Amino acid sequence: MKTNSGKVYRQAAIVAACLLPLWSQTVLAERIKDLASIQGVRNNQLIGYGIVVGLDNTGDQTTQTPFTTQAIGNMLSQMGVNLTQEQGQKLQLKNVAAVMITASMPAFSKPGQPIDVTVSSMGNAKSLRGGTLLMTQLKGADGQVYAIAQGNVLVGGVGASSGGSKVTVNHLSAGRIPSGATVERAVPSGLGQGGFVYYELSSTDFGTAQNVVDAINKSMGPGTAQAVDGRRIAVRAPEDVDARVSFLGRIDNLDVKPVVGLAKVIVNPRTGSVVMNQKVTLETCAVAHGSLSVVVDAAQPQLGQGADIQVKQDNGSLMNVKAGANLADVVKALNALGANPLDLLAILQAMKAAGALRADLEII
């Protein structure tokens, strides 16, 4: 136990030493295109229902998926092959699968441009590997057809070791078709209309919004940009479309120093991951959870030294951390003593409820 705890502690100390320079340095400048997006310039989601054929006996069991046989009957009737209801019910096609097709059509897509599509089985097909998607209409939220998809489905996740004794099989009921759809209808965009273009920050922050306005006005001239609120910025743009594209291209690459955001701790109890930013701190507190006890004493720190953090178990294991009253030290000490993700989550929640954790706790 002592050897494993010491090994974990050394690993945690190495990680902390690597991250310490990142925490201590000032906020670096980012481009406006990394902080904000132009209002109205976005992707559009498409969806469709289709049939994949050519499977190697890994398709739907049509007796249990009646919608597959119904789709096949409708397709055949459009091609001049008419089946009676009795004949359609007797179809036993193991090389066919009913699928849903999803795609994201980028902004400014024009008819004739290709886009990638994702094909996912909606029946009980075992695998879509080797199948071919038949022509399928992709519709938007308004019910209009915006693209047509067709092509060979590419399914990954099947592999074998060099010796042939180990086979790895991942999820085979979904695949992709690169450039598998062709845009048939363009989505109107209002970028070239009106005298203003609006930038929207990825997160609301009044300080960052003001820094963006200052950077644009400094580079493009006073009065070019003004903040509407903590998230949206109005930019006066040229009326000519060509000049507007060049103008926005220059704005996108301007450097801005974003304001440091809220102190936040992200916890994923399924994986045990804990991520925090540099503003997370702790107040004096004491937490007892099962066999673990956490004491953060920041009442009387020595001059030039940080606070003392003690984490111990009932069996006598004890670890002292003298690196300031911050959450990174508590997490590192708990991991060194073998605390599981549920223990860590319970302790963080208790600290937050007691007001000792100076950060927003978000569980994903």
Automatic annotation (TrEMBL):
Compartments where found: Bacterial flagellum basal body
Main location: other
Gene Ontology BP term (one): bacterial-type flagellum-dependent cell motility
Signal peptide positions on this chain: 1-29
Keywords, in A-Z order: Bacterial flagellum, Cell projection, Cilium, Flagellum, Signal
Residues annotated as transmembrane: none
Any one GO cellular component localisation term in the record: bacterial-type flagellum basal body, distal rod, P ring
HAMAP family, per the entry: FlgI
Stated role: Assembles around the rod to form the L-ring and probably protects the motor/basal body from shearing forces during rotation.
Official protein name in the record: Flagellar P-ring protein
Lineage: Bacteria, Pseudomonadati, Pseudomonadota, Betaproteobacteria, Rhodocyclales
Encoding gene (name): flgI
